[in-house]
Design goal:
- The structure holds three protein chains of three kinds.
- By secondary structure, chain A is of the alpha/beta class.
- Chain A is built from 15 helices and eleven strands.
- Chain A has a single domain, classed as Amidase signature (AS) domain (Amidase signature (AS) enzymes, Alpha-Beta Complex).
- Chain A is 38% helix and 13% strand.
- In chain B, helix 14 runs antiparallel to helix 15 and helix 15 crosses helix 16.
- Chain C has a two-stranded antiparallel ribbon with strand order 1-2.
- Chain C has a domain of 38 residues.
- Chain C is built from three helices and two strands, in the order αααββ.
- By secondary structure, chain C is mainly alpha-helical.
- Classes of the chains: A alpha/beta, B alpha+beta, C mainly alpha.
- At the A-C interface, helix 9, helix 10, helix 11, helix 12 and helix 13 of A face helix 1, helix 2 and strand 2 of C.
């Protein structure tokens, strides 16, 4: 069943001629038709366009183009609806963009094309990437394939669902405070947030400019390494992109983590930590230790301030980034007597509540009289948080923790209390503030059959160690081979 | 009670670069609406800015031309406000660490030299252009993202005329430096004028009133003159002024308050997270400094000093930079640079305009005019003959000495030869000779002319004059 | 909704219904109270994080790149005329 394969499995079969890209793409399309009605992972997709790309990939392969030159040749990859694909809709799961069709490709889209991928689908998400459950989508939440009453996590919920439900082979999402890692954990797949500056942000609809990164959601760690190798690298259209050479990430998957020092932050033993989550994480840590890694307790003293810091900085940047959505040049305009009226009406009608909340908050913390007390102070605390991690990384190579404090909660359970929702980001949020890399890998299931995730955090540009450790752990377990039952 | 005016000017100048500030769209006036646009300058979702290195170089150059410092650190900030011509609804600018600071502009005004201090010249981006129709407005984003230099003076200007001269001086500097074409027709230079008045002797400034977006210097002068009078008038009548923005109506010749329902803008400035700071190295600064050329006023003064030229001559050479450069090359090592200047300004310029030629195409060596002057001053040829030699030089490119040689134009200065010519002329013209002996000075010129004719212009006119006098006197 | 938040709503140009105003006002009040937590810290002498990566002098040479075709530029425009993006009349 082609759609259940991983990237490396599929590319093998494609190379051997056992399958065509059309087979794989069609299988995904059939799967979408069968299950997406109950999952709502896809906001839209164009089967004809996908198959045309698949056929082109097959033709290229037939004419001699190899998998070495194009590591994703013919592999169907789904795109979070926040990444620009020329000719495809770009909605960010919001009404305000109307029927916006992107006239340009994001850099990562171009890189996927150059690697031969079949680029399809617009994946459901929290509107403008603001949320942790995909309940903030203007088009209904995506649903956790392990239990469709539950959230899949967010904001890259649709991507995580599609990967785990085998509606695509892999997906690209974005992570600003955990939006790749958290849904990956709640859905039971792998989610990688690269170091800030590792992957170009050109073509990623900006939420928080100093925190956003694009990253892969995949079925296993090897696939994440393959995807990272394709999307990472220099881009002259992004001033925040770091021209650091891209190593061969798959070569790092040696399985050897002897002597690797892994830190366990004592501040992460929080009250709200679900006992099953704690148990699964402890077991995973024990497994890593068995493999030869050395565990030690570390301290990240400013942990309790991370969420407050994040919600000041991210919303401030977002309030400016989302000012462009006002009905002048694109989007679903609501007319008004003056441009100002038109702006107010368009934004009032087009933005969902969470987006409004964050824009107002962000505007507030930047406004005259409040800038020093909020924004400036938060940027200083950010320095302290960053320093915590730099200090820790003097002692250890990686940091381990649960990805989330609880398994997936019920749809609707926290959506009435935004602050409660924010507090659930506790383990993922500091990574973005400190500019680190991070990955979530499946580490078990709750008694109710809901996936649990182990998070590893690495130094800036330390993806090699990160992937190596994640892969070593993964290979001692069978979690990544489990799939939800759907019909 | 007497009042004085205090004026500060903020001048926005579009830089002359090939492309826009953040993207590779061309920086070009007059294209069809919305044809020089891309995702970046349209503010589409997902785009990012990357700064134009040439814009930064031209900004640093401007700073140097305005005697500013170029600090080792500058950064970018977002200025947040909604407007249909503002694609991102924030403008990228430099708030607290601009590219250049603290300089001055010197210019001649009212018989003296004025110095106006420059607070800063910083870089930002221009916005789109709106056209207003009956029931709606239309926006063209071709101009959005064009690099804009904002040059801010201290409130050192004291009147409308001074403001006008300052602007002209600034424009000349910017054009001279190749920083901007300063084409007002194309909207490349716009001014915000800040005016306040206070009783003479008061150190505290009065309420500052701003007149925005002026696009002609004479308009600035008219508006400033009006506004100063208006403000003084209000105060004299016991009224008070409030800080506000006013609009200049050129047709009616008045300023009007711009009543807006909105409070003063809260721009919510914060450091832009997408753009990295600029920390110019010493090498980078030195490279820019190497492109600094002499400014008009300094050049004029230098020409006058170094070449003993009167102001008028110096102004000609400042006004025509190519001609000026040519003059300096020609005057190198010359004993009489003023004479060289005369040849350049009169004969060369005339020939160039006659033939529609350019200084660059002149056939003779740059040292040729100096040589020519030397031949005349050394008595080798007469100044009359020199005129002909020059024409020959211009047409053939040959050196003057060679032309003189080839055409046998050497001045005759041998007294023996000349005496013969003189005697012949006196003999042939007894009437004028007699007239001169009888005291008619002018008759000498006639005789002189005869000698010049007989000698085909080669006789040394001075010697001829003296010899005739001597012969006739005896 | 308290006045300082109302001012932010105005600056942000978002029209709210009375009901939204009430609900958001209350939620934002809670959030602002939560983020006040940062005042517990002594940040004297701490530099703000200006940028996520310590890069400088990232520049682009003054070389033209292809622009969008006019059609592509206008493709998503809500209202156009004569090649311009049309908006309600701007009154200075």
């Amino acid at each position: 069943m082609p759609h259940t394969l991983t990237i490396s499995q599929l590319t093998d079969k494609l190379a051997q001629g056992e399958l065509t890209s059309r087979d794989a793409t069609q299988a995904c399309l059939d799967r979408i038709a069968a299950v997406d009605g109950q999952l709502n992972a896809f906001l839209s997709h164009d089967p004809d366009d996908a198959l045309a790309q698949a056929d082109a990939a097959d033709a290229a392969r037939a004419s001699g183009v190899s998998g070495e030159a194009k590591p994703l040749l013919g592999v169907p990859i789904a795109m979070k609806d926040v990444i620009a694909v020329n000719g495809h809709p770009l909605n960010c799961a919001s009404k305000i963009l109307g029927d916006f069709n992107s006239p340009y490709d994001a850099t990562v889209t171009q890189k996927l094309r150059e690697a031969g991928a079949v680029i399809f689908g617009r994946m459901n998400m929290d509107e403008f990437a603001m949320g942790s459950s995909t309940e903030n989508s203007a088009f209904g939440p995506a649903r956790n394939p392990w239990n469709t009453d539950r959230i899949p996590g967010g904001s890259s919920g649709g991507s995580a669902v599609a990967v785990t439900a085998d509606e695509c082979i892999a997906s690209l999402g974005s992570d600003t405070g955990g939006s790749i890692r958290q849904p990956a954990a709640l859905c039971g797949c792998v989610g990688l947030k690269p170091t800030y500056g590792r992957v170009s942000r050109y073509g990623l609809v900006a939420f928080a400019s100093s925190l956003d990164q694009i990253g892969p959601l995949t079925k296993d760690v090897r696939d994440a390494a393959i995807m990272l190798g394709v999307i990472a690298g220099e881009d002259k259209r992004d001033s925040t992109n770091v021209p650091e050479p891209v190593p061969d990430y798959t070569a790092a998957l040696t399985g050897d983590i002897k002597g690797l020092k892994i830190g366990l932050p004592k501040e992460y033993q929080v009250d709200g930590l679900d006992p099953e989550v704690k148990a699964a994480t402890d077991a995973a840590v024990a497994e890593l230790e068995k493999q030869g890694a050395e565990m030690r307790e570390i301290s990240l003293p400013h942990t309790e301030y991370a969420i407050a810091t994040y919600y000041i900085i991210a919303t401030a940047e977002a309030s400016a980034n989302l000012a462009r959505f006002e009905g002048v040049r694109y989007g679903a305009r609501v007319d008004g007597a003056s441009p100002e009226q038109m702006n107010r009406a368009t934004r009032g009608a087009g933005f969902g509540e969470e987006v409004k909340r964050r824009i107002i908050l962000g505007t507030y913390v930047l406004s005259s009289g409040y800038y020093d007390a909020y924004y400036l102070r938060a940027q200083k605390v950010r320095t302290l948080i960053r320093q915590d991690f730099l200090n820790a990384f003097e002692e250890v190579d990686l940091i381990a923790s649960p990805t989330t404090p609880t398994p997936a909660f019920k749809i609707g359970e926290k959506s009435g209390d935004p602050l409660q929702m924010y507090l659930s980001d506790i383990f993922t949020i500091s990574c973005n503030l400190a500019g680190l890399c991070g990955i979530s890998v499946p580490c078990g299931f709750s008694n109710e059959g809901l996936p649990l995730g182990l998070q590893l955090l690495g130094k800036p540009f330390g993806e090699t160690d990160l992937l190596r450790a994640a892969h070593a752990y993964e290979q001692t377990t069978d979690w990544h081979n489990k799939r939800p039952e759907l019909d | 009670m007497e009042y004085e005016a205090v004026i500060g000017l903020e001048t926005h100048v579009q830089l002359r670069t090939r492309t826009k500030m953040w993207c590779g769209c061309v920086n070009e006036y007059g294209a069809e609406a919305n044809t020089n646009v891309c995702p970046v300058c349209l503010g589409l979702p997902g785009v990012l800015p990357v700064p134009n290195a040439e814009a930064l170089r031209k900004t640093a150059l401007t700073g140097m031309l305005l005697n500013c410092d170029v600090p080792g650190f500058s950064k970018w900030d977002r200025k947040n406000y909604f407007y249909p011509d503002n694609p991102k609804n924030y403008q990228l600018t430099q708030l607290d660490f601009p590219s250049t600071i603290e300089g001055f502009v010197e210019f001649e005004f009212d018989g003296g030299t004025e110095r106006v201090r420059i607070n800063r010249a910083h870089l930002e981006e221009d916005v789109g252009k709106s056209t207003h129709f009956a029931d709606y407005s239309g926006v063209d984003f071709n101009r959005a993202g064009v690099p804009l230099l904002e040059i801010v003076t201290e409130p050192d200007l004291t009147g409308a005329d001074m403001a006008y001269e300052y602007l002209n001086a600034l424009k000349a500097i910017l054009e001279y430096g190749g920083v901007s074409d300063c084409d007002m027709e194309k909207g490349q230079v716009r001014c915000d004028v800040n005016i306040s008045v206070r009783p003479i002797g008061q150190t505290e400034l009065g309420e500052k009133i701003e007149i925005k977006n002026m696009n002609s210097f004479s308009g600035v002068r008219r508006a400033a003159a009006y506004e100063i009078e208006r403000q003084i008038g209000v105060l004299r009548e016991g009224g008070s002024l409030v800080q506000e923005t006013r609009r200049w109506d050129d047709a009616l010749g008045i300023t009007e308050s711009m009543r807006t329902k909105e409070d003063a803008h809260d721009y919510r400035y914060f450091p832009d997270p997408d753009l990295m700071p600029h920390t110019p190295s010493d090498e980078w600064i030195a490279e820019v400094r190497a492109t600094v050329m002499e400014l008009p006023l300094a050049r004029k003064r230098r020409l006058m000093a170094d070449y003993q030229l009167p102001a008028g001559d110096a102004e000609v050479f400042v006004g025509d930079a190519a001609l000026g450069e040519y003059f300096e090359a020609a005057a190198k090592g010359a004993r009489n640079p003023k004479a060289v200047a005369n040849w350049v300004m009169n004969n060369l310029q005339a020939k160039l305009s006659e033939t529609n030629g350019a200084v660059a195409d002149v056939k003779f060596e740059s040292s040729a005019i100096g040589e020519l002057v030397g031949l005349v001053e050394g008595g080798k040829i007469s100044s009359r003959i020199a005129q002909d030699v020059f024409v020959e030089m211009f047409e053939t490119g040959k050196a003057p000495a060679i032309i003189v040689e080839e055409k046998g134009l050497s001045q005759v200065s041998d007294s023996g030869e000349l005496e013969e010519f003189c005697n012949e002329a006196i003999t042939a013209n007894p009437g004028p000779a007699e007239d001169f002996r009888n005291g008619k000075e002018a008759a000498l010129n006639f005789l002189k002319g005869q000698v010049m004719k007989a000698s085909r212009g080669k006789a040394n006119p001075q010697m001829v004059g003296e010899l005739l006098k001597k012969i006739l006197g005896s | 909704m308290r006045e300082d938040l109302q001012h932010a709503v105005k600056l942000a140009r978002i029209e709210l219904t009375a009901e939204e105003e009430a609900r958001l006002g209350s939620q934002l009040g809670d959030i602002l109270k939560y983020v006040d937590k940062l005042n517990e810290l002594d940040v004297e002498g701490v530099e703000p994080t200006a940028h996520a990566v310590p890069l400088t002098n990232v520049l682009r040479e003054d070389e033209p790149r292809e622009s969008l075709s006019h059609e592509a530029a206008m493709r998503n425009a809500p209202k156009t005329a004569n090649g311009l993006f049309i908006v309600p009349k701007i009154v200075e």
